[in-house]
Amino acid sequence: MKKLHKLRQMGRGWAMCRVGLALGFMAGGISVAGAGERPNVLLLMVDDLNDWVGCMGGHPNAKTPHMDSLAAEGMLFMNAHCQAPLCGPSRASMMSGLLPTTTGVYGQVSDKHLRRGGKAIREAVFLPDYFEQHGYKSVGAGKLFHNGDGNGVFDVYGPKYSFGPKPKQRMVYDPSTVTDLGSTLTDWGAYPDSDEKMSDYRVAAFGVEQLGKEHEKPFFMALGFARPHVPWHVPQSWFDHHPVGEIVLPHYKRDDYEDVSELARLVNTMPAMPTVEWLEKHGQWKEMLQAYLASTTFVDAQIGKVLEALRASAYAENTIVVLMSDHGYHLGEKNRVAKQSLWERSTKVPLIISVPGEKGGRKCGAAVGLIDLYPTLVELSGLPGREELEGVSLCPMLDDPERVWKRGVITSYGPEHHSVRTARYRYTSYGSGKAREFFDHKVDPNEWENQVDVPEQAARIVELERMLPKGAAEGHPIMKMPVSLYELKQRGKLGGER
Question: What are the residue boundaries of the Sulfatase N-terminal domain, all occurrences included (predicted)?
Fold first, then answer.
């Protein structure tokens, strides 16, 4: 595409200009202040958002007009996946351009301890830093790494994120009444009484303010929104968008685990999280879904403020916009209300890339990963490529979404459990091959039929096995894994349920 090519050429031209400046002369009279031709980058990160977005058709009750409008301006990747089904490691992977099996960051690591792992994560050049090294100003706010910006990566960091405000007492779900095996922030209900009390409101306001400023350098701006992360509390007005009587239940199969191994059940069972049985017993399934949908519509409105500010700004014609989630979320499917699985509902994420001047409203069905964002933004901005990166640029897909794309996307949950997703298939190995799953998404989009023992699939399974990581780095020394039954069994701490 001509505009895409032009953006790359602009970036390369600026790189040549920097060389000229370093040698003490001006290339063609171009100065630093005149480098506005380089594209800016606006990265919008949403926490725990699955494909319940209007343009993705993931749920009929989804109301996300602003995300939909961005998709209408850019490319929507319909088959994008995270590299870890958990906030911290997913974000560390995307920001470093390295797989969890390379960095050892499989679980939650505080930002201030992130660099205290193995060599790969110690020496990683995070995405904002790389742009800074090439003349960009980095600006951030909200939840970007696991704790926001505890690493001090951004030149300017605005409001922090919060999962609150929360009422003094839980409104619906209290995990202490369900189990003594872990805890969760999971709860739902209309709270507080105004949008202004939500951290996402402040993050959006900061983004609007920054887009109204004059920036001497091109900017790399990242805004991290907390909702729809639990607890699903937003003001009542957002619940009103989703009357509970109109809520449609997601796909659910009561005997779904019959073809799943015991090891897979242990890995995917989060004892502190709600199950469909609990939701049905307490008459809360639709109410829970309403709260998730309300939280998503609320965050969509905050994103809308930022997008409108960009469109009204001096940067509208020269800013690449990316919208992504760090992982998906089960909302009853496979009897789970949680992330932290290697099934489709946890790994699949919304991903939109909008390049100024490019034709919008296009969709791509190729399997891509969040790890591919780093090299994609580097190429779009004309920066020198980095051989260390383990993703690949999606620019070929932006040029032609129909091109043949034979890569598989890897998602890891700890060092022993890995899944590979292609355009059609998913293959998962638990416990370094002790248990396996194979799903054909063309005929089984809900992953209800494990075909790993079907003879006709044997050749495909062998091909997918070859795509799995050949080794896995030792886990980060200061890391917490989610409280699954598998993790508790490994620690010898399995207890009883209430």
Answer: 39-382
Look at residue 7 in the predicted model and tell me its pLDDT: 56
Mean per-residue pLDDT of the chain: 92
Which residues contact residue 297 at a Cβ distance below 8 angstroms, ignoring those fewer than 6 apart? 63, 64, 238, 241, 242
Tokens of 399: 């040029």
Q: Which residues are catalytic?
A: 87, 146
34 has a pLDDT exceeding 70: no
What pLDDT is attached to residue 495? 54
- The two tokens of residue 161 are 């994120």
Question: What integer pLDDT is reported at residue 492 of this predicted model?
Answer: 84
Q: Integer distance in angstroms from the first to the last C-alpha of the chain?
A: 60
Q: Which burial class, exposed, middle or buried, applies to 491 when counting CB atoms under 10 A from its CB (0-12, 13-18, 19+)?
A: exposed
CA 68 to chain CA centroid, nearest Å: 17
What are the percentages of helix, strand and coil residues in the chain, rounded to 5? 35, 15, 45
Residue 181: which of 266, 81, 63, 283 has the closest Cα?
266
Phi, psi of 293 (to 5 degrees): -65, -40
DSSP 208: H
Rg (CA), the chain: 22
CB < 8 Å & 24+ apart, contacts of 214-218:
214/314, 215/40, 215/137, 216/32, 216/33, 216/137, 217/32, 217/35, 217/135, 217/136, 217/137, 218/35, 218/36, 218/38, 218/39, 218/40, 218/135, 218/136, 218/137
| Residue 12 pLDDT greater than 60, yes or no | no
- Count Cβ atoms within 10 A of the Cβ of residue 249 and give its class: 0-12 exposed, 13-18 middle, 19 or more buried: middle
Whether pLDDT at 475 is above 80: yes
Which pLDDT value is given to residue 71?
A: 98
**Rounded mean pLDDT of 220-228?**
98
The DSSP-derived string for 330-349 is -SSGGG--S--SSSHHHHEE
H or E stretch at 76? strand 75-81
- Count Cα atoms within 13 angstroms, Cβ side, for 178: 20
Q: What is the mean pLDDT of residues 120-125?
A: 98
Among left, alpha and beta (phi > 0; psi -120 to 50; other), residue 189 is: left
Amino acid at 292: Y
Chain centroid to CA 51: 11
Q: Is the pLDDT of residue 393 over 90?
A: yes
Confidence of residue 25 (pLDDT cuts 50, 70, 90): very low
* pLDDT at position 494 over 80: no
224 — phi, psi (to 5°)? Answer: -110, 120
What pLDDT shows up at residue 491? 86
Residue extents of the structural domains in the chain: 37-259+273-398
Just give the CATH number of 37-259+273-398.
3.40.720.10
pLDDT category at 37 given cuts 50, 70, 90 is confident
| Four-residue CA torsion sign, 118, 392, 39, 51 | negative
